Amino acid sequence: MIHPRGPLHVVVVNYKTADMTADAVHSLLSSDVADRARYLWIVDNGSYDGSATVLRDRFPDLRLIESPRNLGFAGGNNLALRKILAQDRTQERGDSFVLLLNSDVQVEPEAVAACLMFMENNQEIGVVGPKVVLPDGTLDLACRRGFPTPLNAFWKLTGLAKRFPQRRLFAGYNLTYLDENEIAEVDSVGGAFMLIRMTAIDQAGLLDERFFMYGEDLDWAYRIKAHGWQVFYYPEARVTHLKSASARRQSRRMIYEFYRAMWLFHHKHYAPRTFFLINWLVMIGIVARGVLALTVNTFRTTERKRFA
Prior knowledge:
alpha/beta; Spore Coat Polysaccharide Biosynthesis Protein SpsA, Chain A
């Protein structure tokens, strides 16, 4: 079959959730991508529980990569991204796309095609994310965000962002003052479903593997925007985020990684041009909130454990 448009490469990272990953892939394969070739890449991130065998048996056409250890979200996705970028360096990359898809996401039938068409019609856009809802139908706030500037971080860490969600001044990180059903240019979309133009990846590079599970999508969007690309939230497309069982298994570790990612992002992008006392205040705030979150999590019942 001849495909007149560039390919779509879909990357899913699995960590001990073979059945959930299979459900995500089934929902993806049921979605329309028009006349594009679609290549499915699954990275098994050191599961050692038979996941790789299960997924290979269920999806014979997938391109499976088995990592000897858990490299985190960034490291796992990069294993596939390196192979994708190396496949054909001569083809036109502006019409080729990569979709990062979490293993705990259910894709609605028209979501992928809608995002692709939006990017086809807007060549200045490098990244698009859909409306992501939780199982109860509420918006997953991570699906559209502003960068955690020192001021945005302050409002979030002090709780003022949550107290005044409709105030633009305070809600610059989670953007809760925006209508969740309106298309908007944003700083970042979430890594649970992140559609990226291949040329944007060529320019910005791979995900930063210093981020283990959180913050790598923000960092990538920051670097992509630095090359002049736009990032858009596109609620005409919709997916459901189940919130991963693999994260729940390591809730204490995930809380640590969340707050570590906050500091790493600040240290990488803002600290060099921020007054040192502000940097100290940001660090103290992140550490204090992280310790509080870990302490509260310790006394929660197993069913109510936090993982972010």
